[in-house]
Design goal:
binds zinc ion, Rossmann fold, alpha/beta, Alpha-Beta Plaits
């Protein structure tokens, strides 16, 4: 049992694996259960009592009010394939939510259905929101009455975020959360990702990995719980939302941090994000991208949609910029057809090397 901050500093790190093995069975009577597949591929069981769930919803409502909406407002959820069946229909109805999957051959049809639904806000994955925004812009449509877009679960670069704002003609907020805690940080109007849950203590661990402690949780013990994402904290003068502490850098999974060169040396994969950000603002183009480490020194680039200048131009630009910024000569090979079946949380996927 931890009762002081000093005690917390000495507490061991709780990995997801340890949590599943030992701590994930509820210690107290829990009414609410959430089973998640988990972005890292490890399924996790989260148990909550009524108070714990209430606190999470309270934090969510606090963030939503900041965007001029409320929990329970009409939601367009831009997600994976919608569930079918009566149980799901009732659930969506009670939540005042419709799920859309605007991608691939369903794109036009789903965007049409979304416009008909007239959501107050959109909530979903960056990649699908971008695909949806591109279709909305291409077809010169709009979603009447839309107040904001909340992006969750995937890394998004500033030029992509700005594009979402233009295409949907509303504010865009990034949410950082986890199924174990719900919202951890939420973006204010000035672009800071403020910590918003007063019951959570967020630390940056020895490998800059996020460690989260929930001081209010009784049903399950979550102390220095390792989320697996890499982040840096900073503090800001901005008081518009939550805490003065903000997440200044958020870089996705710990395992996807480093690109390996042909000389078996490493550079930080965030370089790819910075270079594409620069490319997109130089050329006024917006697309999604993933770099996959193929062999040391070689990276497979996938873009969707195909960049205006062609994907080869992007590949040469990246090779050139990596050489200039890091001194490493790398090879970027391209995939004409992106592999849609691979769901990725970040824009870089490390190899087995
Ligand atoms: Zn702020």
């Amino acid at each position: 049992m931890i009762s002081t901050l000093q005690g917390l500093e000495k507490a061991p790190i709780l990995t997801k694996k340890d949590f599943i093995q030992s701590g994930s069975t509820p210690r107290q009577k829990a009414r609410f259960h959430r089973h998640t597949a988990g972005s890292s591929g490890t399924p996790t069981d989260v148990w909550l009592n009524r108070n714990e769930l209430g606190r999470m919803l309270g934090v969510r409502d606090y963030c939503y009010r900041h965007c001029g909406i409320r929990v329970g407002d009409r939601e367009g959820r831009i997600w994976g394939r919608p569930e079918r069946g009566l149980k799901s229909i009732i659930k969506q109805f009670l939540l005042n939510r419709q799920v859309f999957h605007p991608s691939g051959r369903f794109l036009k049809e789903e965007v049409e259905r979304l416009i008909q639904w007239r959501p107050t806000y959109l909530y979903g994955y960056a990649s699908l929101l971008l695909e949806c925004a591109q279709e909305v812009e291409r077809s010169e449509r709009s979603i009447p009455g839309l107040k904001c877009v909340i992006v969750t679960a995937e890394t998004i670069i500033p030029s992509q975020k700005a594009f979402l704002g233009r295409a949907f003609n509303c504010s865009v907020h990034e949410e950082y959360g986890a199924s174990e805690f719900d919202i951890i940080a939420f973006e204010c109007g000035d672009g800071h990702r403020h910590l918003v849950n007063p019951w959570l203590i967020i630390e940056s661990g020895p490998e800059a990995q996020a460690l989260v402690t929930d001081v209010s949780r009784k049903t399950q013990s979550l102390i220095r719980y390792e989320l697996g994402d890499v982040l840096q904290m900073n503090s800001t003068e901005c008081h518009s939302l939550g805490d003065h502490q903000v997440i200044s850098v958020l870089e996705g999974r710990l395992s996807n941090q480093f690109a390996v060169t042909a000389q078996s040396e490493k550079f930080h994969a965030v370089e790819f994000g910075h270079i594409i950000e620069r490319y997109q603002s130089d050329f006024g183009d917006v697309f999604q991208f993933t770099f996959i480490q193929d062999v040391p020194g070689r990276f497979r680039l996938e873009c969707s949609p195909i960049p205006e200048q062609g994907i080869e131009v992007v590949a040469r630009y990246v090779e050139d910029m990596i050489l200039r910024k890091t001194g490493y000569s790398i090879q970027v090979i391209t995939n004409k057809e992106p592999n849609r079946s691979e769901k990725k949380k970040t824009y870089f996927v490390a190899g087995d090397t």
